[in-house]
Amino acid sequence: METRTNEIADGIYRFSTYIERAGLVFNQYLVLAEQPLLFHCGLRGLFPLISTAMSGVLNPNRLRWISFGHVEADELGGMNEWLAAAPDAQVCFGSLGCAVSVNDLASRLPRPLEHGDALDLGGKIVRYLSTPHVPHGWDAGLFFEETTRTLLCGDLFTRLGEVPASTSDDIVAPAFEAEHQYLATALTPLTAPTIRRLTELDPVTLALMHGSAFGGDCRKALEELADGYEVRLNRQLADRP
Ligand SMILES: [Fe+2]
Ligand SMILES: [Fe+2]
To answer: Rounded to an integer, what distance in angstroms lies between the CA atom of residue 119 and that of residue 89?
Structure first.
């Protein structure tokens, strides 16, 4: 296995590992700034590979913030390894997720965030967006990096297979192929409106956890993703016995 490094937006680095058994890439994003932030810790077993890859860009002991989209092993499995490697680092995460899980799981107390909270990283600004149950988990949330207009969109648009670092090809149809296979999204009446609200950010890049970073028409892709989930929900409601 190999972890590849690519700068997918100015000062935003993607570390990507393809795991054949899962048939997916697993990405972590480093927002390089005076107070560098890592979004997604990666699986605990991948920490040596990912931290070595990061060393090519930044000494991991300089990390200041560590975060993830929701509580799952691929999101935060290596959290305590990163905290041990970076003595000044603190986890920042939604307040609900801190109260439910991360206050207990993390080896140092996390900083809780509310919807709309911004962290000025010095050269980069990330804003926390609470997205309960989107794509899954009541603790779910995302970050928007405002200077590059990069939406760190976690498991949204998850796509199967080994993929290039960046693309402007359609990411919606492949996302629904993966959805069909894994049923990973918690389909509720709030799924489509929550995704649709993300269009207001007018992102330039969508930084996927399982897929390429997308540099095409991000508003359109988010609209089409929301529409697709709305259709799925309505179909399931109509099919109810
Ligand atoms: Fe997930
Ligand atoms: Fe994931």
So the answer is: 14
Angle subtended at Cα 40 by Cα 214 and Cα 223, rounded to the nearest 5 degrees: 35
Q: Which ligand is nearest to the CA of 184?
A: 1
Q: How far apart are CA 79 and CA 38, in angstroms?
A: 10
Q: What's the 166 CA to ligand 1 centre distance in angstroms?
A: 21
Q: Is the pTM of this model over 0.85?
A: yes
In angstroms, the CA 155 to CA 142 distance is 10
CB under 5 Å of ion ligand 1: residues? 72, 155
Range 129-150 average pLDDT: 98
- Cα(34) to centroid of ligand 2, in Å? 27
Is the per-residue pLDDT at 241 higher than 90?
Answer: no
CB 53 within 8 A of CB 176: no
pLDDT score recorded for residue 34 = 98
Q: Is 199 left (phi over 0), alpha (psi -120 to 50) or beta?
A: alpha
Q: What is the DSSP letter of 109?
A: P
Q: What is the pLDDT of residues 156-186, one digit of tens each?
A: 999 999 999 999 999 999 999 999 999 999 9
Kindly give, in sequence order, each residue whose CB lies less than 8 Å from that of residue 64, ignoring residues fewer than 6 positions away. Answer: 35, 36, 37, 86, 88, 89, 90, 121
15 pLDDT band, cuts 50/70/90, is very high
**Tokens at 138, concatenated:** 């009541």
The neighbour count for residue 203, using CB atoms within 10 Å, is: 23
Task: Find the 87 Cα to ligand 2 centroid distance in Å.
Answer: 26
> Mean pLDDT across the stretch 141-157?
98
